[in-house]
Design a protein that fits this description.
Residues 15-216 form the Aspartate/glutamate/uridylate kinase domain. In the C-terminal section; belongs to the gamma-glutamyl phosphate reductase family. In the N-terminal section; belongs to the glutamate 5-kinase family. The protein is built from 25 helices and 25 strands. It is an alpha/beta fold. Helix content is 40%, strand content 18%. The strands form seven sheets. The chain has a six-stranded parallel β-sheet with strand order 18-19-17-16-20-21, sandwiched between helices. Strands 3-4-2-1-5 form a five-stranded parallel β-sheet, with helices on both faces. Strands 24-11-10-25 form a four-stranded antiparallel β-sheet, with no helix packed on it.
Length: 680
């Protein structure tokens, strides 16, 4: 937080900004002008101008634009015979002379559309050797900025006598990057922004998967580790590295990089796996005791989070998920004790096979490795996930929502303090900065599984941002279908529980499907009245809204996460199944019926992670399933589906015990492939 606060304070003090844009901002890959990017850049500079900032632009691109135009001109003026000859590269200075004119004309046109005036200033390396030039430069720029004019600088490549970049150590500047830095110093700018083709400064080549993005450059830490590589072609950076003379004061003491956290979690997990089952169980029991002993402290921190969220105007559904209700800490501690007393999940022999006489193969359960869990506004999720990681022998990195930062911090501290020193508290890392998530999602060599718990946007964004396997569900659109043969008293109880027990939960009912015959018998109205009595807002599908005169739902694929639901009428069980497949999310769906044949059709055909007969969708939960806890509910069809407990965090490996066998082209070996008892 110190670094974030210091950075915000620094940005507030900024008045004069130098922005340097590279050739690939100005031009496309084919050399033509990138009108969309330039237009966006001009709009952003205009916005800064209106906010009172003084913006100075340093632009590249003239040579590239000129080269494109001169190639076209040469093509028009060439005969067919000329085109058969080897083409001589165009003179760069001629390209610069032609391109500068077109580039500035475009800037002038774009800025004029925004009612902004721009000015062109061309400079050369030798100009800066003249004190009078530098003095006049300052006066001119000061005058332009006072009139809200945007000065646009470029090196005058057409007449510059400077040698190629980095070949002449006597030069004052070598390219537009160094020109921008020189101008920032000369014109006393508060901030210099260099757009680049990478996200910022890395600890090594950006293409190297082991290289890490340096968010804040600290001279004392990074100066000796930086090397300069090839010149970049493009300039479209998105994240960036901050350089500041006081950066060393902002850096948290003992700051650990994303990779370091992941590697430490893996090393600690291997030490955890080496422990006996009883020792791992004792860690969990100690965690449970520590949570109960610190209940007052946990609730106090959680109350502070809830109060801040309410003051910030967060939605009620989020605040509901954020709050640790009375008895929740004890409930979490008890679920951890259930986990501790479970049968040992790691190292279980799942299959034993005699491959050949004296050669035995075993298939064993094994931890996945390191898990990255990203979750929103659910501090209880941190406890469940951490306890499952310990039970399954996995390392863990946790990133919770900022709205639960106090709750997450105290829970993490309590849990890790109960982990013995010979394992190490870095078994479970807490990621506190949102900026670290992109880095973590790149670490497919040290993180084995990502589990996002949160909104559809969160899950979709993470899936699109990483090569690491992702386990989770994007939506929780759960259906309850009330068949014509349903016991209506039972139906009312189940429907009310599925919707109102915890409306913000992903296993809460969002759509109520009702057989068409219940419209005639009045059953639909009874169910709607029961829901409305409990404060539920009712919306209708196309058929229900017409027949029952209720407001039509904006979508049949809507996760309300609140006291609201959609009601729709269907012809029969097969129509209900079709509706669920078309509009559901393959999470949890339920049928209420006394007709067992109809129930079996529903249970067999609905392709969801959990399908129930005469039971509330709210039962789809790791603790209620007897898993002890869950890291989330998966709608994926690979690896784990439904509530993911310990087993969902395990994979398998093979052990073979032989007595000198060799393959040798399979000569002289007789394969028996005989199944053996699991006990040796």
């Amino acid at each position: 937080m110190e670094a974030v606060d210091a950075t915000r304070a620094f940005v507030r003090d900024v008045k004069r900004v130098v922005v340097k844009v590279g050739t690939a901002v100005v031009t496309r890959a084919d050399g033509r002008l990138a009108l969309g990017r330039l237009g966006s850049l001009c709009e952003q500079i205009h916005e800064l101008n209106t906010q009172g900032y003084e913006v100075i632009l340093v632009t590249s691109g003239a040579v590239g634009v000129g080269r494109q135009r001169l190639r076209y001109r040469r093509l028009l003026n060439s005969s067919f015979a000329d085109l058969q000859k080897p083409q001589v590269e165009l003179d760069g200075k001629a390209c610069a002379a032609v391109g500068q004119n077109g580039l500035m004309a475009l800037y002038d046109t774009l800025f004029s559309q925004l009612d902004v005036t721009s000015a062109q200033l061309l400079v050369t390396d030798n100009d800066f050797r003249d004190p009078d030039f530098r003095r006049q430069l300052n006066e001119t720029v000061k005058s332009l900025l006072s009139l809200k004019v945007v000065p646009i600088f470029n090196e005058n490549d057409a007449v510059s006598t400077r040698k190629a970049p980095y070949e002449d150590s006597s030069g004052i500047f070598w390219d537009n990057d160094s020109l921008a830095a020189l101008l920032a110093l000369e014109l006393k700018a508060d901030l210099l922004v260099l757009l680049s083709d990478v996200d910022g400064l890395y600890s090594g080549p950006p293409s190297d998967p082991h290289s890490e993005l340096i968010h804040t450059y600290i001279k004392e830490r990074h100066e000796g580790a930086i090397t300069f590589g090839d010149k970049s072609r493009v300039g479209r950076g998105r994240i960036g590295t901050l350089f500041h003379r006081d950066a060393s004061k902002w850096a948290p003491r003992g700051e650990v990089s994303a990779r370091d956290m992941a590697v430490a979690a893996r090393e600690s997990s291997r030490r955890l796996q080496a422990m006996s089952s009883q020792e791992r169980s004792k860690i969990l029991l100690d965690v449970a005791d520590a949570l109960e002993a610190s209940e007052k402290l946990i609730i106090a921190e959680n109350d502070a989070d809830v109060a801040e969220a309410q003051q910030a105007g967060y939605e009620k559904s989020l605040i509901s998920r954020l709050a640790l209700k009375p008895g929740k800490v004890s409930s979490l501690a008890n679920s951890i004790r259930v986990l501790a007393n479970m049968e040992e999940p790691v190292g279980r022999v799942l299959k034993r096979t005699e491959l050949s006489e004296g050669l035995i193969l075993e298939k064993l359960s094994s931890p996945l490795g390191v898990l990255l869990i990203i979750f929103e506004s659910r501090p209880d999720a941190l406890v469940q996930i951490a306890s499952l990681a310990i039970r399954s022998g996995n390392g863990l990195l946790l990133k919770g929502g900022k709205e639960a930062r106090r709750s997450n911090a105290i829970l993490h501290k309590i849990i890790t303090s109960a982990i013995p020193k010979n394992v190490g508290e870095r078994l479970i890392g807490l990621v506190t900065s949102r900026e670290e998530i992109p880095e973590l999602l790149k670490l497919d060599d040290v993180i084995d599984l990502v589990i996002p718990r949160g909104s559809n946007n969160l899950v979709s964004q993470i899936k699109a941002s990483t090569k690491i396997p992702v386990l989770g569900h994007a939506d929780g659109i759960c259906h309850v279908y009330v068949d014509k043969s349903a016991n209506m008293d039972m139906a009312k109880q189940i429907v009310l529980d599925a919707k109102t027990d915890y409306p913000a939960a992903c296993n809460a009912m969002e759509t109520l499907l009702v057989h068409k015959d219940l419209v005639q018998t009045g059953g639909v109205n009874e169910l709607i009245v029961e829901l409305q009595t409990k404060g539920v807002t009712i919306f209708g599908g196309p058929r229900a809204s017409s027949l029952l005169n209720i407001p039509e739902a904006r979508s049949l694929h809507d996760e309300y996460s609140s006291l609201a639901c959609t009601v729709e009428i269907v012809d029969d069980v097969k129509a209900a199944v079709d509706h669920i497949h078309q509009h559901g999310s393959a999470h949890t769906d339920c049928i209420i019926t006394e007709d067992h044949e109809v129930a079996e059709i529903f249970l067999r055909l609905v392709d969801s992670a959990a399908v129930f007969h005469n039971a509330s969708t709210r039962f789809c939960d790791g603790f209620r399933f007897g898993l002890g806890a869950e890291v989330g509910i998966s709608t994926s069809r690979i690896h784990a589906r439904g509530p993911v407990g310990v087993e969902g965090l395990l994979t398998t490996r093979w052990l073979a015990r032989g007595s000198g066998q060799v393959v040798n082209g399979d000569k002289g070996i007789v394969y028996t492939h005989k199944d053996l008892n699991l006990q040796a």
